[in-house]
Specification:
Helix content is 66%, strand content 0%. The chain is mostly helical. It is elongated, with a radius of gyration of 38 Å.
Length: 267
């Protein structure tokens, strides 16, 4: 009797164990099928994940590009504002645009043009920037024309105040024909004078006609040109808003028009 009961209990436990094994097998087969289905989906479209990653990467790249452009624009605007901040690099580059303008100083140097032609030119350029019409009589004094720097200042003043086309043509011709060691540099009096000219299309054509070396003495002549003109003509939408854009466009055009640095006068 006891043997029979023992066998009966063993059979029950055997059945339970068999059931558990069957359930385990079914679960394993089901899991494997699910994994297989996922594998099939992956094999069906193996590039889906890469496409998602590529799209996400492109979006991040575009976001970074816009952020760089925003920072460049903000930095450039800040540099323009620095013209009025004493001690800044921009302040020093544009010293003749700042501070109270003393007409007596200009007239004093005009009385002795040979004393300091450079300073007289700077004062005439300042008068040109202010479009100050109080010095028109200086245009009728031939003794002032003997100094090249003073002549350049008078031409710039003449065009700024009276819009005399002959004065502008003379300035442009000086740039095209300027001889000597300054032929290939941004650091010339003529290029400085060109930054005071409102007609950017004509000025741009002159600047792009030849390959100009570097930034000139002190490393800032090209930047100073852009800075002065951006300050003097803030509403000119045709002029590059940022120095980075200005530099890229001008240098590319110069290399295209004068690849070997050989062209003296544009065709």
């Amino acid at each position: 009797m006891r043997l029979f009961q023992h066998m009966k209990q063993s059979s029950v436990w055997s059945l339970i164990a068999a059931g558990l094994i069957a359930l385990a097998l079914l679960w394993a087969v089901g899991g494997s099928g699910s994994a297989g289905d996922e594998a099939k989906v992956e094999r069906k479209n193996p590039g889906a994940e890469f496409a998602r990653e590529s799209k996400s990467g492109a979006l991040r790249s575009e976001t970074r590009k816009r952020e760089r452009e925003r920072k460049q624009k903000k930095a450039t605007q800040y540099k323009v504002e620095n013209i009025l901040v004493e001690g800044t690099y921009e302040f020093n580059l544009t010293r003749n645009l700042r501070g109270p303008f003393d007409p007596e100083e200009l007239l004093g140097f005009a009385a002795e043009p040979g004393k300091d032609p450079r300073r007289l030119m700077e004062l005439l350029l300042r008068a040109a920037a202010d479009k100050d019409g109080r010095f028109l009589d200086l245009l009728q004094r031939p003794e002032l024309r003997g100094e090249p720097e003073v002549e350049l200042g008078l031409l710039t003043y003449d065009y700024a105040v009276t819009k005399n086309p002959a004065a502008l043509e003379a300035i442009l011709n000086l740039h095209y024909e300027e001889p000597g060691r300054y032929r290939r540099s941004w650091d010339t009096n003529v290029i400085m004078a060109l930054s005071y000219i409102g007609e950017w299309d004509l000025t741009k054509q002159a600047l792009e006609s030849r390959l100009l070396s570097g930034d000139g003495t002190g490393g800032g002549a090209r930047y100073a040109f852009w800075l002065r003109r951006r300050h003097l003509f803030p509403n000119d939408k045709s002029f590059p808003e940022t120095y980075e854009q200005f530099q890229e466009e001008i240098i590319a055009a110069q290399k295209s028009n004068d690849p070997g640095g050989r062209n003296e006068v544009p065709e």
